[in-house]
Every structure is written in C-alpha cells, then in structure tokens.
Write a structure and sequence with these properties.
7 strands, 6 helices, disordered C terminus, elongated, alpha/beta
C-alpha cells in the first residue's frame, strides 16, 4: 500500500513538473465555451466566470492535454522545419531561397516570423505551433521570399502568387490575431508590414537591426500580412 501510494504521489509530482505554466482567465461574457492557447510559454485557458473551482481544474487538465496532443501531431522540430523550408523553396521559388538556419523562437510577441537577409537566418514564432500546416507553410514561404526580396513591394508579392493558399492563410492569421486581441482586450496593434525592430532594440529574435519583419505577429496586428 505505501509503496503504491508513494509511487502515485511521485508520478503526480512528475506530471506537474512537466506541465507548462497555466494562466486561467475568467470572463463574464463567456457563457459555455472554453478555449486555450499558448502565449509566451504559458498555456492560457479562458473559461466562463461562473465556473466553480472544480470545473476550472477539470477544464484546465482537459485543455492542457488537448494542446499537448495537438502539438504532438503538428509540431515540427527545427531540423524538420529546415527540411520543410528547402522543400517549399524548391517547389515555389525554384530553389533560389536557401536559408542558413530555420528555427522556432518563443519571444516573438508581435510577429509570426522574421528573416535576416544578411546572414540568411529565419525565425518562426512558436505561437504558430499547432496551427494548420498550410498556414505554417505560408509563413515559412513568406520568410523564404524575403531572402530574395527584402521589402513588401510588387516583386515580393509576385513570389507568393505560386502558393495557392496565400490569401486564405493571410485571412486565417488575421482572424486568429483579431480573436486573440479580443480575448486580451487589446488594440488593433502593429501594421503587418512594419519594420522588424519597431524601435524595440537589438535582440536578434525580437527584431534586430537588419531584420525583415515579414508577418505580423501572434498578437494584435492591424491587418493580415
């Protein structure tokens, strides 16, 4: 009995240690629906204000498990992300865009992705993990196109016409960001085609000088990229 109980207690502690931090947001305007999303390494669970503590705990466990299962199905590691970039470049850009590295980053709060053409590096926001693969492909292709054309002029957008889901993906990201802004009670946010650094300093993952900001980010863009 004691051995079994002790094992169970250790297992529970281990599970709690492995679970990401969770923030619960209650809303009086939310009646029945429960939503969850990742934000800066934290799982945010939005529930109706009327839920009891027991219901809150039940839904937190359920939504954390659901996000983890979804991430397991859809999350590419950095190596797979680089391979996907090569495939997209070959298919839609005649293989001309050749990044030196492609990786996920967790601190891009206002952009879905960024590119530094000078050294060929591409970074995608970890907020994209769990979104439909064709949306991630669009953001990745958008970043790749910036290795060839830094700005957002006609030459740049012509590169993306080959991808059949460009407009659909832009609409999806706009809707996702608008919903996030409503959850946060935030404003319309930054322009999708604003310069990368936005006056934020020299962090290479959050808009260093010389970066090309390609897609407005996971929170509060004013329009789709």
């Amino acid at each position: 009995m004691d051995a079994g109980g002790g094992a169970a207690r250790r297992s529970s502690r281990d599970d709690a240690a492995e679970r990401p931090p969770v923030q619960v947001r209650r809303s009086a305007r939310r009646r029945r629906t429960v939503t969850a999303f990742r934000e800066d390494g934290t799982v945010v669970v939005c529930i109706p204000a009327r839920f009891s503590r027991a219901e809150e705990a039940q839904w937190v466990e359920r939504m954390v498990a659901r996000l983890s299962a979804r991430d397991a199905r859809r999350h590419l590691d950095d190596g797979e992300l680089s391979a996907r970039a090569r495939s997209l470049s070959e298919r839609y850009l005649d293989g001309r865009a050749v990044p030196t590295s492609v990786r996920w980053v967790g601190n891009q709060r206002s952009r879905w992705g960024s590119t530094t053409p000078a050294d060929g590096t591409i970074r995608l926001s970890s907020s994209l993990q769990g979104l439909p693969p064709w949306v991630v492909d669009y953001v990745l292709l958008h970043e790749l196109a910036h290795l060839l054309v830094p700005g957002h002029g006609d030459d740049f957008w012509r590169l993306l016409t080959a991808y059949p889901r460009t407009e659909r993906a832009r609409g999806y990201l706009e809707g996702w960001s608008a919903a996030d802004a409503r959850r946060e009670g935030g404003d319309a946010g930054r322009d999708a085609d604003e310069d990368a650094d936005g006056g934020r300093g020299a962090d290479p993952d959050e808009g260093a000088a010389g970066d090309t900001d390609v897609v407005a980010g996971p929170r509060r863009p004013s329009r789709a990229p």
